Amino acid sequence: MATVTFSQVPLLFFARISGLLVAVLVLFWALSFKSSFLPRHSSSQEDQGLIYAALHPLFMVIGFILISGEAILVHRWLPGSRSLKKSVHLCLQGVALASGIFGIWTRFQGKDGIVANFYSLHSWMGLICILLFGAQWLMGFLSFWHRGEVRTVRLRLLPWHIFLGLYTYGLAVATAETGLLEKLTFLQTQRNVSKHSPESMVVNSLGLGLALVSGIVILAAVSPKYEALQTKPIYSTHTKKCSSS
């Protein structure tokens, strides 16, 4: 059974606390500032787009980023066999991928269509992130269900799998940051929202929260495991003298 080190417990705790803070902030933003997600001159028909516009940050932040971060941490806290951890990791990443695809789909439900919404750095990074995440998940799915591969091949691919997973997670957070900046710039220039308004403070706090939770998740993922430290041989001057005598 896997053991979590004492040093990892604070990381896991702060990862959950910061993730909860981010979830509360994005929910508060979407529910309390509904007018920010409506067209400037909105009609009753156009108001129906509020649902899709508000669902985009909810699914991309909570469904995609936070759940994928939890999937990364599965190997650090979940007890049981390696197969169980891999299956839970794969399922959580599948939920995150589905949330990301649906979140992007909601952005294309406006009257302007796909091309009009695919123009910014945020949209380009988002598409690249989803494609990388989908390829990463597919590779993990095939590896999980086809375990007859040569062990040396699997071991060679594992570092790349870990690297691409952390890179894609970091790219997702960076994409969300560009989206928040884009939205806040639009609100301040087109809607005359003050730079020191409550909504500006909420959006800025959400950006800082995402940066915090991503740093904690990545640090917890790359920190050494307890089992590895326990099995690592310890050499001392006394042992060297005994072996040489």
Automatic annotation (TrEMBL):
* Bilayer disposition of the protein: Multi-pass membrane protein
The Cytochrome b561 domain sits at: 14-222
Q: Which GO terms describe its cellular component?
A: membrane
- State its Enzyme Commission number(s): 7.2.1.3
Task: Name the predominant localization.
Answer: membrane
Q: Where are the transmembrane segments?
A: 12-31, 51-75, 87-105, 125-145, 157-181, 201-222
Q: Which GO terms describe its molecular function?
A: metal ion binding; transmembrane ascorbate ferrireductase activity
- Cofactor(s) needed by this chain: heme b
* Tree of life domain: Eukaryota
Lineage of source species: Eukaryota, Viridiplantae, Streptophyta, Embryophyta, Tracheophyta
Q: Which keywords describe this protein according to UniProt?
A: Electron transport, Heme, Iron, Membrane, Metal-binding, Transmembrane, Transmembrane helix, Transport
- Fetch the PANTHER family from UniProt: CYTOCHROME B561-RELATED (PTHR10106), TRANSMEMBRANE ASCORBATE FERRIREDUCTASE 4-RELATED (PTHR10106:SF41)
Question: Where is this protein found?
Answer: Membrane
**Can you name this protein?**
ascorbate ferrireductase (transmembrane)
Annotated catalysed reactions: Fe(3+)(out) + L-ascorbate(in) = monodehydro-L-ascorbate radical(in) + Fe(2+)(out) + H(+)
